[in-house]
Each structure stands twice: as structure tokens, then as C-alpha cells.
Amino acid sequence: MKMMKAAVALGMALTMTVTGASAVFAEGETLSVATDFEIKTLVPWAASEENAFLVLNQAEEGLFRMDENNQPQPALCDTYEVSDDKLTYTFHLRDGIQWSNGEPVTAADFVYAWLKQMSADATNGYSFIMTDYIVNGQEYNEGSVEASEVGVKAVDDQTLEVQLKSPTPYFLNLTTMDMFFPVNEAFCEEQGTNFALSPDSMLYCGPYVITDYDPAVGVTFAKNDNYWDKDNVAIEDAQVRVIKDAAAALSAYQAGELSQVKLDSANVVAYKEDPEFSQEIDFRTSYVQFNLTDDVMSNVNMRKAISLAMNRSALTDNILADGSAPGFGLVADGMSGDGEKTFRELNGDVSPYDPEQAKEYYDKAVEELGSAPSEVTLLVADDSVSKSVATFIQSELVTTLGLNVVIDTKTVQGRGELMDANNYQFAVTAWGADYDDAMTYLDLWTNGTPYRGNYNDADYNALISDAKTQTDDAARLDDMLKAEKKLVEEDAVVAPVYHRGSAVLTKSNVKNLISHPIGVPLEFKYASFE
Fold it and tell me: pTM, whole model, 2 decimals?
């Protein structure tokens, strides 16, 4: 998400994939995966972390659900139409869809949930995912219009009409996200402040119902007999366990207690030849954010020097060693481009490694600043991966540039607070894509906030504004390609470092445990035991 996801994503370590080797689980065994952080809340408009999205995605459902190819497919929606100007979507709900208590799921349930997410009640920082797109959504958030004026209407029980501010090619992708799932108003209001605090205080419309929930322990699931597509849900029982220690999670996997486990970098080499091993890359980029109001980092040549001085391949190959890929651009590897080539393939390496040119830029910066800085301070979160990345950057800059770097380690929350308060020089942070489109990254730098380095450029903003209103797909893509080059290559506002990867072991009899690099991280629905 725009202001929070970069912070919370650094604390997450959960990516699933499809693979396998020697079987441990018998037919009908519980599907079990692990997360290394507590599941703090399941309230839809309060949840902002991937482990909550993981849980909610199994128990709830939206108009569309991602398939095994990361494409949105009709879910609670059966059919839909889009107006010629691409501004009005009309969704028709399936016949007979029900909540877990047998009540019908209606268009009004979507209206209620979406308005909640756009209102002041939302505390997850994700209101933008609707207010940026839906007519009068921002105005409703600010309290200047009534709910009836917002562009989401229940035409009847089975018809939902949505009016957008501008053409949004990825809108169907958005509807697969947890924030867009329906909520039964009468039930929610009856529960009051107890809503979603326990299994009995929730209703479910997804493949599973929650049977037990403890934030520090995890969640257990049972197949939802009222789910419209229950005949295609093969596994009866599932669980998400909270296991904070990577070694403990691996031990649980080896003991047959987990269907899949994520490996830390220390274990990747040992298991790389194991038939249960696989790797993949997420649509998530860790990057250096420069503070453009800082005396040193306001110098564009200094920023370019720092970016060009980092041998990102050495970081991903020798230090992370977990399947992560070097960040030669802000937009992650594999994200969509023109239908034939990815965005990354089309725009090339906008943040390469070039130590000779880096030194030239550094010398120019020193000349412009009047003297070389005695040291600079790099702000990072206190998790082990962030600290390793910071140590790598520190070594690269002193070796290539002769620039001394002091590492300032804070909690994830503490780092975010310092960035929000404009109290930093440069920092390691990250952003995970909410949908498969470059705009999920690029529009973050249009608001000029300290967290985004105080970048406020009229030309950049114009490119993003045109892309958001552009009805010609080729012209829209060209705007975004130019915007990334301006942000990363020309203005060096950020220096991409790496795209997060994961290495996992998966039991051989577990099939089609689908991971998604965007939005909700994992699908139990398609999984089965062989």
C-alpha cells in the first residue's frame, strides 16, 4: 500500500509455490503452512499485512479470484459489462451464493464493505485502493459527500454498479484483493467491536471457514459447505501456523507438520538439489529512498553515484542467496508490459552497476558540495535481511566511492516514523505490488511526502496523470516507461536494490498450492493431496 505496505512488507516472510518431492502427508491430511509474524487482526478495514491477507483469502472471496496464472477469474461475480468509456462496471452476482450462515450474499454486502474501506473507520492505510479510482471515494473519505454520492451502487440484490474516475485496466485485479471482499452489514453491526475477533464473530463466503484463531498461534480452517464452488475444493482442512524462528519452521517441516516451508539464506545451498526445493521471485522491490531535502542527498550526482556503486548481483547471489533478483529497475521482474514483453524487458536496466561512472558522479558531487561528506547515515529496519542489505551497501560505498556509511538500525515502526518525520538522509525500504501493473509503484512519488523523499516534479506528475487518464494502452505504457526512467535514472530519487525472492520446500504429494506475486499471497482453493 502507498504509505504502509513498504514498512510492513519488510517484516513478512511468506511466499508459496507449486512443487514437490517425497510424500509425508496421507490423503485427507491437513494442509499446513507457516508465517513468521503474528496475525494481528482479521478485520478487513484494519488488516494491512500479508499474513492477514493470506488468512482472509481462504475464508472470503470477492467479485474475482486470481487463478493459477495470476489472472482474475469470475468468483462471486458471474458476468460483468464495461461501458464504452471504460468508466462504468456492472457486475452480476452468481445465483445462490451464500454466507456460511446460509444468508444470501448480495450486492449491498459489497457496498457496505467498500464504503467501510473508504471511510474514516479504515485504519489499514488501504483506503487509497478504492478512493483513487471510485467516483467521490476520496470526497467520502474526507466527509464532504454522502454515501449515496459514491460511485458504488447496489442496483438490486444481484447487480453491483461501480463508477470509476478514469479508465483503469487493472480494476478487475483490484477486486481480487481482501479490501474488496463483501461484509454482511447486519451481522457486522450486531457484533459491534467484537467483529472478526473470533471465528464466531465472522461470516464466510470463501472456500473455507475459520474454526480457530489465535493471533500468536495461527488459524485453522475447514471446508465451507455453503461455498458456491465447494465441489472444486479438494482439501477439507488447512491451517496457518505462526512460527517465528526459521529453524523451528524447518524442523516442523521435516517432522511432517508443515506442507511447505520457506528457507532462509543459510539453508538454501544445503537444499538446492533437493527435489522438494523451488524458488520464485515476488513482485516486491527493496530500494534506497533518498531524502531530497538533505544537504548531501539533495545533490543528484551524489544519488546517481550511490546507485551506480552497488553491485546488486553480488548481493543477490552471495548474500541473500534465496532466489531474489538484482534490482535493475523499480518495477519488478515479470510484471506486465505490452503483452509480448514485460515492463522490465521493455525499459531495460535503469539502475545498473557501473563503478567507474559512479566514481565520476561522486567526484562531481564533491565538487558541487564543496567537500566530501565525512559520513552519511543509512536508516534501516532491524530484521536480519535488512541489516545484511545495509552492511552490503555500506561496504560497496566505501570501497567504490570512499564514502563512509553509518548504519542506523530501528524497528520497522521506528524506521517508518523517522521517514515520515523527514528525519533521515537515506533509507532502505520496500514496496510490494498490489496489482500487476507498473502504476502500483510509479504513482507513489506524486504526493511529495517525506517518506517518498519529498520528490515533487511537475514533469513526472504529468506523466503519471496522463497515464491514469489515457485510453490508449500503448500511450499509457509509454508514459509509465518514461516515468520510471525519470524517477530512477535521470533524477535518481530512488535506487532499486533487489526484487524479493523465496526458496521453499514443498511435500511431493501437495499439488497446486498456488502462490501469487501480487495481492493475496496464496491459494488453498486449488490445492490437493496426491
Answer: 0.80
Cell for 478?
509509454
- Bridge partners (DSSP) of residue 73 are 65
What span, in angstroms and rounded, lies between the C-alpha atoms of 132 and 29?
43
Identify whether the C-beta of residue 46 lies closer than 8 Å to the C-beta of residue 124: yes
Residue 9: per-residue pLDDT: 29
* The predicted structure's pLDDT at residue 8: 29
Residue 299 is predicted with a pLDDT of 98
Per-residue pLDDT tens over the stretch 57-83: 999 999 999 998 888 999 999 999 999
Cα-based distances in Å from 181 to 1, 75, 203, 414 = 17, 11, 12, 31
CB 455 within 8 A of CB 303: no
Q: Residue 4's closest CA among 425, 432, 443?
A: 432
Q: Which residues contact 462 (CB under 8 A, 6 or more apart)?
A: none
| pLDDT for 2 | 34
Which DSSP state fits 119?
A: S
Which of the residues in the chain have pLDDT under 70? 1-28
Amino acid at 332: A
Cβ-Cβ contacts under 8 Å for 470 (sequence gap 6 or more):
167, 476, 479
CA angle 215, 218, 219 (to 5 degrees): 110
* Residue 61 · residue 269 · CB < 8 Å: no
